[in-house]
Structure formats: structure tokens, C-alpha cells
Amino acid sequence: MTVTHLFPRRVAKGAPPLSPLLRLLILTQLAFNVGFFAVLPFLAEHLGDAIGMAGWLVGFVLGLRTFSQQGLFVVGGALADRYGVRPVVLAGCALRIAGFGWLGHAERTWTVVGAVLLIGLAAALFSPAVESEVARQAVVHEEAGGGPRTRVLALFTVAGQAGAFVGPLLGALLLAVDFRTVCLAGAGVFVLVLAGHAWLLPQHIPGRSRIQVRGGVGPLLRNRGFLALCCAYGAYLLAYNQLYLALPAEVERAAASQAPLAWLFALSSLLVVTAQLPVTRWAGERIGLRRSMAAGLALIAAGFAVVAAALPAGRTGTAGLLPATGFVLLLTLGQMLVVPAARAWVPDLAEEGRLGLYTGALSSVSGLIVLLGSAATGTLLDAGLPPAVPWLLLAAVPAAAVALLPRRPRPRQR
Predict the structure, then answer these.
(1) pLDDT surpassing 60 at residue 5
(2) Closest by alpha carbon to 260, among 327, 331, 324?
(3) PANTHER family this protein is in (predicted)?
């Protein structure tokens, strides 16, 4: 995909082009994911094989990484509301560099936990700052006649998945040396990101007003529609997290190797890069935000059910990898429906001037769900149950989340 493809000059006839700030923020997401996904897909195997962690502990550490990231998004979002995007993004990049460097040298459980927490904290700073500003700029672009905000947010997703496509391939190549080299390469990517943003990211973004950190949490906790959206999104994120926990175990069972894992990640990312914009356009024209999320969650549940249905046959080799491939495809299709819709919904539910806080809270609540759910999933995978049972239980989570969605979005005039 070329830059011209990623950033079309017009989203509709006579519509304004994307602003330079939006282009920078979208490319930021691409760079973030190249560095991040060069490391993360190979972390579970490293923790289990090289460090010797039990399955439940591997699941807990992966959940802890997600929680330290997603769970603290609310802090990063509030800081972005108060201090602006630039200082929060730069601080997060510096912490990510330190975290990857530490993880590459960590050999004991407590050092791994410390490095993982630092890596998650870094994203808890830069991600909500970038995501909330992209959402705000998407609303501005929509009001200027640039088309639905979901298209801008879909471009953001496409850029992230393009990075997620390149990252695992880079990591798989470097893994031939060792895991430490993979971590140092990821840190190197963030060194470049830090330098680029110190140069290009504006000190002050027009139209963004800074507010005090205090206040805003009470109304948020009383916002039942927003909390329902958080829980449904948390169910999606728990399902997505199984790419790093349940999927590696299934790939190992079917292929006696982790080698196909990088290609499955690449398949997922390539599907998003090529199909996200048409899917978002279709969903925006035909089904709206709530139905888009409901359909996405149903597809994700179907992906888990496909693996559960195939496991009793116990097939291995190429045929044994087909259910895992089906899972990745259905999960990715569900993701393409859920993520832009959820992000587009938040500005309609957030208080004025608190978009960073609400964007962070969306990830914090879902991060708590992932922390608890990942430890439970690790226990299930190690419990000696029939192989299909954990996958059936995981299928029930996104299926049940459909009922949690708010009945309809309630747009606010800005």
C-alpha cells in the first residue's frame, strides 16, 4: 500500500483533504505498531520456553502487559487533556525504548514483570494522546464536509495494521539471532519515532483547549451508555488477546512449531490493510455503529467456535492449521467492524473537553477485563480439559457482549 493509497487526496468530491496533523498521527500509529509487533507475537513462547514460566503465569504476564497499558489509558488520556499531545507522546516513546531494552536482558520473573509493566505504561501515555486527537480531528474533518468520521478512524486502523503486518515479519527474521535482538530492534524503531515526533509534532494544536486534571470521573462513572460500550469493547479486546495466548498454543499443537504464527499475523494485518476501508464504508452506509459492533462480535464468536468444532478431530500439519486460519480471518473481520465503530461512538458519549479521559477510560475498563480474563484463559489452557472446551467458553464472551451494547448512539452537537 502506497502513501497515496493510504491518504487519498479527497474522501468525496469537493471534500477537504486530510490535514497535515491527521496524516502525521496516522503514520504515527503505523510506526508504533512496527516496533510493538516485532516483539509481542514471540513473547509467550519466550516466557514459556526460555524462562520456564507456567502456562497460568504466562497468561497473567500477558494480561498484566495489557492491563498496564489499557488499564492506565485513563491516566494518559487525562494527562493529554491537561498538558497536550506532544509531551505525553514523547514521554511514552522514551519509556517504550527503556522497556524493550530491559525486556531483552530480563531473565527472571520479576525482571520480566518490570519490563512488561514499563512497556505497557509507555503505551498508556502515547496511545490515548494520539487516539483522542485522531478522534477529535476526525470530528473536525467530518464537520468540514470531509465525510463520515469512521473513514478517518478506519485509515488510522489501516495504518496500525500495516505496522502490525511488517512488525511480526521483522521479528521473525531477527528471532533467528535471538529474542534480545528482536527487543533491541523494537527499541530502535521507537528511537526513530521519538526523534521524528520531537521535530514534527506541534507544540500547540489549534482548537485543543487544556483543562485541569481534576473532575470528570464522576460523570463518566454515571454514564451508563459509555460504560456499556466499555464492557462490550473489553469483550472484543479479550478475544483479540487470544492471538497471543490461545492461538500460539493451537499453532504449536497443529504444526509442532511457532513458525506459522508470523504468517497468520501477517494474514490478519494484510486483510485489514486491504479490506478495512471498504468494510467501514459499507457498515457506515448500511448498518450504523451499534449493528456494526454487534456483527463484529458475532463474527469473533464464530471464529472461536470454528476451532472448537475442529479440535476433536485432532488433525495436524497443513490441515490442522486450517481452523486456526479460519479463527484469524473471522476475528479480523470482526475487528474491522468493531474498532472504528467503537472509536467513532466515544465522541458522542464524552463530555465536552474530556475526550482524552473518555478515550483512555474505554481502554482502561477493557484492560481490566483482559487482565482477569487472560489469567483465567491461561488456567483453562493448562487445566487438562477437552481441547474444545476453552475455545467454546471463549466464544461465549463476545456473543454475550452483544447484549451489553447501548441501544443506540446519541450524537451531541459540538
Answers:
(1) no
(2) 324
(3) MULTIDRUG RESISTANCE PROTEIN MDTH, RESISTANCE PROTEIN MDTM, PUTATIVE-RELATED-RELATED
The distance of Cα 294 from the centroid of its chain, to the nearest Å, equals 18
User: Cα angle vertex 261, ends 376, 371, to 5°?
Assistant: 20
Nearest to 169 by CA among 43, 245, 259, 49: 259
Measure the CA–CA gap between 243 and 15, rounded to whole angstroms.
38
Give 213-265 pLDDT, tens digit per residue. Answer: 555 677 888 888 888 898 899 899 889 988 888 888 888 888 877 778 878 88
Q: What is the spatial distance between Cα 317 and Cα 321, in angstroms, rounded to a whole number? A: 6
Say how far apart CA 294 and CA 231 lie, in whole Å.
13
Q: Cα dihedral sign for 80, 86, 88, 92? A: positive
Q: What does each C-alpha distance from 166 to 36, 40, 84, 261, 393 come to in angstroms?
A: 10, 13, 30, 14, 32
Buried b (16+ CB within 10 A) or exposed e, 142-175: beeebbbbbbbbbbbbbbbbbbbbbbbbbbbebb
What pLDDT band is residue 85 in, cutting at 50, 70 and 90? confident
DSSP class of 146: S
Domains of the chain: 19-201+216-404 (1.20.1250.20)
- Tell me if 293 sits within 8 A of 342, measured CB to CB: yes
**Listed residue (197, 185, 164) closest to 273, CA to CA:** 164
Q: How far is CA 219 from CA 226, 352, 380, in A?
A: 10, 12, 37
| 266 in Cβ contact with 165 (< 8 Å) | yes
Residue indicated by cell numbers 467458553: 393
